[in-house]
Amino acid sequence: MAQDRRSLLRTAAAASLVPAVAGIPARARAQSATLKIGVLNDQSGVYREISGPSSVACVRQAIVDSGITAKGINVEVVSADHQNKPDVGSTIARQWIDRDGVDVIVDVPNSAVALAVNGVVREKNKAYFNSGGATTDLTGAQCSPNTVHWTYDTYMLAKSTGGAMVKTGGDSWFFITADYAFGHALERDTTRFVEAAGGKVLGSIKHPLQSTDFSSYLLQAQQSRAKVIGLANAGTDTINSVKQAAEFGVTRRGTKIAVLLMFINDVHALGLPAAQGLVCTESFYWDLNDRTRAFTNRVKGAMAGSYPAMSHAGCYASVLHYLKAAADMGVAAAKASGADAVARMKAMPTDDDCFGAGSIRADGRKLHPTYLFEVKAPAESKAPWDYYKLLQTTATEDAWRPLAEGGCSLIRT
Amino acid sequence: MIEDLLFRLELGLPQVVLGLVNGAFYALLSLGLAVIFGMLNVINFAHGAQFMMGAFVAWMLLAWGGIGYWWALVLSPLIVGALGVVVEKLLISRLYKLDHLYGLLLTFGLALIIEGIFRNSFGSSGLPYTPPELLGGPPVDLGFMYLPKYRLWVVVAAVVMSLATWLVIEKTRLGAYLRAATENAALVQAFGVNVPRMVTLTYAAGVALAAFDGVLAPPIYSVNPQMGSNLIITVFAVVVIGGMGSILGSVVTGFGLGLIEGLTKVFYPEASSTVIFVIMAIVLLARPAGLFGRA
User: Fold this and answer.
1) From CA A314, how far away is CA A284, in angstroms rounded?
2) pLDDT (tens digit, 9 = 90+) per residue, A97-151?
3) Could you tell me if A98 and A176 lie in one domain?
4) What's the CA gap between B265 and B8, in Å, rounded?
5) How much is the ipTM here?
6) Based on the structure, what is the number of domains in chain A?
7) Global pTM value
8) B230 chain-A contacts, CB cut-off 8 A
9) Cβ–Cβ of A265/B146 closer than 8 Å?
10) How far is B11 from chain A (nearest CA, A)?
């Protein structure tokens, strides 16, 4: 009996080895012509709407639009939920690269996770295109030859929204700020532009992340008699702040609200009655021009009823550009070194339906124009998701932090 | 220095009012928890999820059925309460003989599952909900502040609902049966009272209270799947401070802590999410059974 069991075990062990052994040449063969893209983002938390499954849909669209399969190159897409935890994010990134042969990691909202993954990808020499994260450190103190920061950052938001508000008379500010690194950075950057434009900051309140009641902060902001209340927070915190500001009629008495980071999905969640008149900065809007509309029509069907936000567009455009570079330099070379692939991407001008013509700077910053929008009143909105009117375009050369100011080590050497 | 203090006091008065509004939400939620714990001895961790379902049902009624706020105030607690009956019959009723911990684990698991389902179907950034015409419009001028009509209504509704619950439990025959059944279920059953059915209905009533609170929330807070879990931890602290199972305790502590939290938002906003837990720690050290609890 014991003998039987032992032989049974041996057979089972041998059987389990068979697919593994058979798998090795199969994988080696596949690797020669397969690129693997990992979409790492928030699939279940507060940033799901601006990243999540829609980012995956946009990456798949990029693969279709690149026409790369016709050139005999396979592209696989995997995705995972980083749960907004840096440790979870970096563990998944390591597993993907070490075990699953992932070549590119895309999206990664939440600045803390974005920076954690940045380190892993650099260490393993793969490629990293951040679209959902906001921190300027990705192209500053922690810049990396393996990283492109595609869509937006805190500097560009602060400059566009902050500068524009002061110009239209909003020269005294009060901040309601999320009490963590992202909120502090956004407040700091905006303060700089407000003061540079001749405005002053009367005060600020730091609130805990994921607060539910903002009426108290709004009231204090109102009592400071500031002309502009700057919201340096994101996601549901921003939504609740705006909703309650509308409820208390803050804007009715002439105070303006500057939402420093808002995505079109936030406007959708608020509804136009509460969101009308808000001013915000984005680098992509689906209804901006014929090309953005064409892109939106192609991808909309796979997005479960919602429309692409700028973060989704960044996933699309970065992967599209990467595939162009990979086809150009050869898949084997692109897989061998992420830094080489990114260097090739920097050497080629970018052009896509979402951001138009642009380029990638030496520090990894993707350059394109940015847009200041005002949210339409309910009566002005003619179609589903017809939410923005364009107030002002900031040209590419003025929109982003100057190369010398970032302190990126890639520049000095 | 004195000027600064006066300025802060001037800031403080509106905060007291706002604190009471938040306190109303805490009071109603902790009231439901207290009813369930007092009668069933179950720590209902799914309470936050049931609060969220109340809000979502109100949204669905309006968006899909065109049924407005006032009807939702009645229908949503009934619908969510009915789901509560199913949950109690199918799952919770099997756990009464076991340790508290099992009930806690079961309801916590339920909360996670319910939230996950809603997140998958409705996303995480939330849905808009406009308040009814009667309670919308410009805020009321109170002299020292402008208060939206809707917030006044929330306080009134919460006080009326708390009072009604207290009256039912303390002053009616049904309440007397309930209290008797908590003391000695076997004896009450011997008198011909259907105790299991009463327990089921009590759970449903507690759940309905959460859903009622959930209908009050949407015009103020965004309707999103995590709206319950943001509140529930605070509410548990309220229940612990008030004394587990004490109805009066949960209502008084709910309003009181809302007030303290409101004032913290003026004097030291960074601590506003922790102040309640500091108070909880102090109360537990001094009176382990809570302020109104029986040791």
Assistant:
1) 9
2) 999 999 999 999 988 899 999 999 999 999 999 999 999 999 999 999 999 999 9
3) no
4) 11
5) 0.78
6) 2
7) 0.80
8) 210, 212
9) no
10) 7
